[in-house]
Amino acid sequence: MMRFANQMTLKVRITCGFVLLMLAALALIAAAEWLDAEARKECIISEHLHQEKDRIQRAMQQGKSPVMADDYQLYDMRNVAESFRHYGVGYHKVDGSRWHLLVFDIQGQPYFLVHTDARRSYFERVIAGYALLAILLCLLGAAWAGHWVSKRAMAPISDLVYALQRKQKSFPFLHETHEIGVLARAIAQRQQEAEQFLQREQCFVSDASHELRTSLAIVACAAETLVYQLPQDSALTASAARIVRTAQEMELQLESYLLLSREPQKLSRTVIPLLPLVQDCVDRCQPWVADKPVLLVLDVLAEARTSANAELVRSVVWNLVRNACQYTSCGEVRITLSARSLVVSDTGPGLPAGMDTQHFERFAPSASARGQGLGLSIAQRMVAHLGWRMVVHSSSRGCRFGLEW
Questions:
Q1: Residues 318-334: pLDDT tens digits?
Q2: How far apart are the C-alpha atoms of 9 and 47, rounded to whole Å?
Q3: Distance of alpha carbon 296 from alpha carbon 205, whole angstroms
Q4: How far is CA 386 from CA 15, 37, 360, in A?
């Protein structure tokens, strides 16, 4: 019941409050009226019975046979029902039924005057029907009033929501002193703080990307110069080539971070074939498994094409394949490409126990405790940015990352 109540909108709650308040008021009025009506009915019937008794006594004293009204019946000890015989002198309501009994004596002989309120019961039922109709109309009126009041009460909030959805610079009710004005000023202040924070972030990203790109370009050019100038048998050739490769990877990662800073709907998308992109990532990962007994395999089951941002897709595939190659010490890293999915599986140690495979946390420790867990977190954000779905299965025998689009 509480769960259902929590799911109700504020308008529905206000309307239900009006209806329940009206229902409680009507129930209280009906209970008080019923108690008062029962007491008054008993008093009136008793008084009418005594009046009828006096008329009967006068008629008998005059030697006349009393004429009984339709709702009254007179009995003596000879013809009275057995159930009435034990009642003493006075007024009685017989067994809670609609029979009312007045016992009196005339010249020492008991008489039983019985009154039935059959016609009164009929009118009571009619009145009860009208009362139910009136209650229903009151409840409908309360529901309409609650809906009208809730609509008027929610109108300022709806205006604020409309202004937020339209990203308006100025909000309504900013200069009002009531609660809606306080809420509008709080929302405006929060939006201003968010805009300032976003502006600082954009400036940081822009400045950092410019400076980092310049530095990376210098490092890459210097490393390439070293590679070409060093003799073939130099011990520094491998190190210089690694610097070139790392600088290129950093440029790719930097481009990916810039793409993540944009809104998904603003990313440029084209229809791209995935095989060349995946093959390029596999070729670039060969150095990660060159010195280990690890087999890097690419299985192509079908031609795959998708509409997406090529650089972001390249970064996702690169992150997953590189992690698999980095943390697999022996066995196999297999990339399987089909028409609607890409699967990267390995025979490494798997993810740490307790890590949520649906929501990777930043800086979560890796299985070999050599990384900070940023790779999987970033890959998951990229997948969400692309609008894809990532399914992860991990065990002590390895990991399996599936991408579906």
A1: 889 988 998 899 999 99
A2: 56
A3: 36
A4: 43, 74, 17
Give CA separation, 95 vs 49, 74, 99, 102, in Å: 18, 19, 8, 14
Counting as low any pLDDT under 70, the low residues of the chain are: 1-8, 33-41, 95-98, 117-124, 127, 354-375
Q: How far apart are CA 116 and CA 45, in angstroms?
A: 10
Backbone CA torsion sign across 42, 43, 47, 48: negative
pLDDT digits (tens, 9 = 90+) for 210-245: 777 788 888 888 888 888 888 877 888 888 888 887
String of DSSP letters for 338-358: -SSEEEEEE-S--SPTT--SS
Which residue type sits at 373?
A: G
Q: What is the pLDDT of residue 367?
A: 42
Please report the pLDDT score of residue 79 as a whole number.
Answer: 86
Question: For 292, left (φ over 0), alpha (ψ -120 to 50), or beta?
Answer: beta
Length of the chain: 405
Query: Which pLDDT value is given to residue 259?
Result: 76
pTM score, two decimals? 0.51
E strand or H helix at 209: helix 179-229
Task: Quote the DSSP letter at residue 295.
Answer: E
Q: Which of 185, 212, 149, 128 is nearest to 18 (CA)?
A: 149
Q: Is 118 helix (H, G, I), strand (E, B) or coil?
A: helix
Nearest to 386 by CA among 272, 285, 215: 272
Rg (CA), the chain: 45
For residue 101, what is the DSSP state? E
Secondary structure (DSSP) of 62-131: TTPPPPPPTTEEEEETTTS-GGGTT--SEEEEGGGSSEEEEEEEETTEEEEEEEE-HHHHHHHHHHHHHH
* 331 vs 346: CA distance, rounded Å: 8
8 Å CB contact between 344 and 324: yes
149 φ/ψ angles, rounded to the nearest 5 degrees = -65, -45
Q: What is the DSSP letter of 268?
A: -
pLDDT at 381: 85
Q: CA-CA distance, 38 to 133, in Å (whole number)? A: 21
What is the rounded end-to-end Cα distance, in angstroms, of the chain? 40
Give the burial class of 285: count Cβ atoms within 10 A of its Cβ; 0-12 exposed, 13-18 middle, 19 or more buried.
Answer: buried
What would the two tokens of residue 207 be? 């400045």
Q: In what order do the strands lie in the sheet with 331-337?
A: 294-300, 331-337, 341-346, 398-404, 389-395
